[in-house]
Write a structure and sequence with these properties.
The chain has 786 residues and is of the alpha+beta class. Among the domains are: 1-31 and 315-369 and 646-786, no CATH class; 38-312, Distorted Sandwich (Beta-galactosidase, Chain A, domain 5). 30% of the residues lie in helices and 25% in strands. The chain has a 10-stranded antiparallel β-sheet. A 5-stranded antiparallel β-sheet has the order 9-8-14-19-18, with no helix packed on it. Strands 21-29-30-31-34 form a 5-stranded antiparallel β-sheet. Strand 12 and strand 13 (151-160) form a beta hairpin. Helix 7 (430-446) runs antiparallel to helix 8, helix 7 crosses helix 9 and helix 16 runs antiparallel to helix 17. The two termini are 17 Å apart.
């Protein structure tokens, strides 16, 4: 059952929680998480307790873990990687007349938290009466800086309300904090916390520093804090530290109306190469820089950064206030996960929780980078540079699997494969083509020759080499790719998965094109004319299974001949199916976990006719159960393209509210970043009809009746474009840059600054009857303004 959080208020630019409910604390900790792509702070309460899941993370800071198997097999990894909960600097404990402030005791007169999407901060206000009757008001504001990458900060203020009150603040750094035991949901991660080894602790004045190291991966991290105090003159201070804890204590008497104000500045850093002293010095420098900037300066820089982002990227929808809020929350979290990742991975959960052990999947390239390429291209570029930096690991994996080129991992943190279940992981080779697709998209949108030469060409060439090694020409002259797993994880070890083959086809053509365009770079990479010819031949002869009897594409060879899953016999509590049924049964039936062939119709829409898309969509809607958060957004895009606008709007709501309404019941482990990016994809590619095949920017916008207006901004080849869609027309305006060629429902347009182009939206082609979904798996109906 889907239950909306009882106290969330939909606002245009904020996520506001008006009451604290401890039963959904872990969910809200994920939603109120702050990050910049380098540091991640879960939205835990300032005092540290109660907590659903304490969490402080550094991007790509991990521990090596064993992947034991009683039946070890060649090619299956023996070790995995797991994100580490690092030193927690969020904690500020408060004692009021020697009684600890704890929301579970005394009387909580008021409690509110606000994630401010324009300011980039988390605000909290509390009115509390202690068990002994002392009343205080508490205000805290937390930020993770987009501008000063290694810095986070907290402003904490406590005010005595109606009587003189003795208060003590304990500002802490805590390593190796206790974590709750997970309930066994495989999506939540493997559970046990990795212990950090203490290496150094220092205190001076009101500052402290802790340095730790991981035992197996041998990564060094440091956390530092310093404080600025504003309170009564008799405020007493002290500082202390042990190997795993550092504490700054403030004590004072507050008269009614008086306040004690504390600014806590945090610095974080880690390295796999630099010495412990060097990492410690880096963190000290970051804290010193933040102190120099000051609290107001940090706030101003944060607002300036976000003003610039929203000016180019904001999406406005008129007709559903809750979805407007959800859409901006989604975009904000995607930005937080990537803005300062700077050539490190973008995990599936961002830095909001430990779900999937902090691993990165194909979700990043196929979903998150669609959003980033057009709104934060520097972040998209850096994500692809990270993939490029892991090429040696991908080449080693390919060699281990005895194929050519690079075999990028299904799940990883550092670049090594971390999937011990080869049918759904290691052989999901489509991740190679997803990386190639994201590379092509970025190059077309950013027009970045330096990136193409240094990074893009090698990524395209090494991924293409895999396909020529993995596939083969059959006796009838067709190029087959057998024994792989596509996006649909309820089908494994299939021959000629349509999505994989079509994406590989694009990869092969792109590699041939870049090799001919940059012959000197291709020569450096050992490419010759024979290899280019093989790529082109494989692309032209690629098998794309089609069932002429049914008139639809088969997701893979023989898929449409399989027995259909008995959906009527699967009760609501049996979903997701993989938690209740054996994979062997799922693999041999027609049941689709997530959009697979339908995703191919979005990303390779140029390979299907309109009639084929309509028939395919109707067929696969009846089989798709959406046991993956990646599915609803893709189904929405194709539903919108085919004129099923009400259905598209329903799927839009499901994608946008997946974490706000905890639809998958695992938001506690972290946010579903790809689904959040999918919310933007539905708005822009679904209702905005944006496509970018072969670098050509085209739009076929059409709104559902529930929306009156849609407006969105994007960057393309250095130009800022703004598109506004109404029910009967669309307007294209160039905000910055030289004139730009686009198309509107097939009509070529040229837009220039100061010369907007408005065109009518033609009537839709007659749509097929609304498709049906498996019993009980239709998306929740969403009415206007719901």
């Amino acid at each position: 059952m889907i239950e909306t959080h009882r106290s969330f208020v939909s606002e245009a630019w904020a996520l506001r929680e008006t009451q604290l409910h401890l039963d959904v604390l872990a969910q809200t900790e994920s939603l109120f998480a702050l990050s910049n792509g380098h540091i991640g702070l879960r939205g835990n309460l300032d005092e540290g307790e109660p907590a659903g899941l304490p969490g402080t993370y550094l991007n790509s800071f991990y521990e090596v873990t064993p992947l034991p198997s009683s039946e070890p097999a060649y090619g299956v990894p023996r070790a995995g990687q797991r994100t580490v909960n690092v030193t927690d600097g969020k904690i500020i404990r408060l004692l009021v007349r020697d009684e600890p402030f704890d929301v579970r005791y005394g009387e909580l007169l008021a409690h509110e938290r606000v994630l401010d999407l324009r300011e980039g901060i988390l605000r909290r206000t509390v009115d509390w009466r202690s068990p002994a009757g002392a009343r205080v008001r508490i205000k805290s504001t937390r930020l993770v800086s987009f501008v000063q990458r290694a810095v986070a900060a907290v402003l904490y203020e406590v005010t005595a309300v109606d009587s003189s009150t003795r208060v003590v603040l304990e500002s802490e750094l805590v390593s190796n904090e206790a974590l709750p035991v997970l309930d066994g949901d495989v999506r939540g991660g493997s559970g046990d916390a990795a212990r950090l080894e203490p290496r150094m602790h220092r205190v001076k004045d009101l500052s402290a520093l802790l340095v730790h190291r991981t035992a197996q991966s041998e990564l060094v991290m440091a956390a530092g804090m310093d404080h600025i105090v504003d309170g009564p003159q008799d405020t007493e201070t002290s500082v202390e530290a042990t190997e795993d804890e550092a504490r700054v204590l403030l004590s004072t008497d507050l008269a009614p109306g008086d306040s004690l104000r504390l600014v806590k500045v945090l610095g974080y850093g880690w390295s796999s190469r630099r010495s412990e002293q060097a990492v410690a010095d880096q963190v000290r420098g970051a804290v010193l820089e933040a102190r120099h900037t000051g609290w107001e300066g940090l706030l101003a820089l944060q607002r300036e950064y976000l003003d610039d982002y929203w000016a180019r990227a904001d999406v406005e929808i008129d007709g559903d206030d809750r979805l407007q809020c959800a859409l901006r929350v989604s975009m904000f979290h995607c930005l937080q996960a990537s803005a300062r990742a700077e050539q490190r991975a973008i995990p599936a959960k961002g830095l909001t929780g430990t779900g999937y052990d902090g691993h990165t999947f194909w979700d990043t390239e196929s979903f998150v980078l669609q959003l980033l390429t057009y709104t934060a291209p520097d972040a998209a570029r850096d994500a692809l540079r990270w993939r490029h930096e892991t090429l040696e690991e991908a080449r080693a994996q390919a060699s281990h699997l005895r194929v050519a080129g690079a075999a990028f991992p299904w799940r990883t943190i550092r670049g090594q494969e971390c999937s011990a279940y080869w049918p759904a992981g290691i052989v999901a080779f489509h991740v190679n083509a997803d990386i190639a697709d994201a590379t092509l998209r970025y190059q077309a949108a950013a027009d970045d020759p330096e990136f193409e030469r240094e990074v893009g060409a090698e990524l395209l060439i090494e991924t293409a080499r895999l396909w020529c090694s993995l596939g083969h020409l059959s006796p009838d002259g067709r190029f087959r790719i057998d024994g792989v797993t596509g996006p649909d994880e309820y089908s494994a070890i299939a021959d000629n998965n349509v999505y994989t083959n079509l994406m590989a086809q694009r990869n092969l053509r792109a590699a041939a094109n870049v090799a001919e365009r940059l012959p000197d770079r291709a020569a450096e990479l050992g490419v010759d004319a024979r290899e280019i010819a093989a790529w082109r031949a494989g692309a032209e002869a690629m098998v794309v299974p089609f069932d002429p009897k049914l008139g639809v594409h088969s997701q893979a060879d023989r898929f449409t001949a399989l027995q259909r899953w008995d959906f009527a016999a699967s009760p609501p509590e049996a979903y997701p199916l993989f938690l209740h049924y054996p994979y062997f049964d799922l693999y041999r039936k027609q049941v689709v976990k997530q959009a697979d062939l339908v995703l191919a119709m979005h990303l390779r829409g140029d390979a299907f006719t309109d009639d084929e898309k309509a028939r395919n969509f109707d067929y696969y809607e009846q089989l798709t159960v959406r046991d993956s958060s990646l599915s609803a957004c893709t189904q929405a895009v194709i539903a919108a393209e085919l004129g099923h606008l009400d259905l598209a709007f329903d799927y839009f709501g499901e994608a946008a509210l997946i974490d706000l309404d905890d639809i998958e019941h695992n938001t506690r482990d972290g946010l579903h970043l790809a689904a959040l990016a999918g919310t933007w994809i539905v708005a822009v590619a679904g209702f905005g009809g944006m496509r970018d095949h072969d670098g050509e920017l085209s739009f076929k916008p059409r709104l559902p009746g529930q929306l009156k207006r849609l407006g969105f901004g994007m960057l393309f080849r250095g130009r800022g474009l703004r598109v506004v869609v109404a029910q009967d027309s669309a307007t294209y305006s160039l905000v910055s840059g030289e004139e730009l060629a686009v198309s509107h429902h097939g009509e070529a347009l040229t837009v220039a600054v100061g010369q907007p182009q408005t065109r009518p939206i033609p009537p839709p082609r007659p749509a097929m009857p609304a498709p049906t979904q498996p019993a009980g798996r239709a998306p929740a109906r969403r009415e206007p303004g719901a």
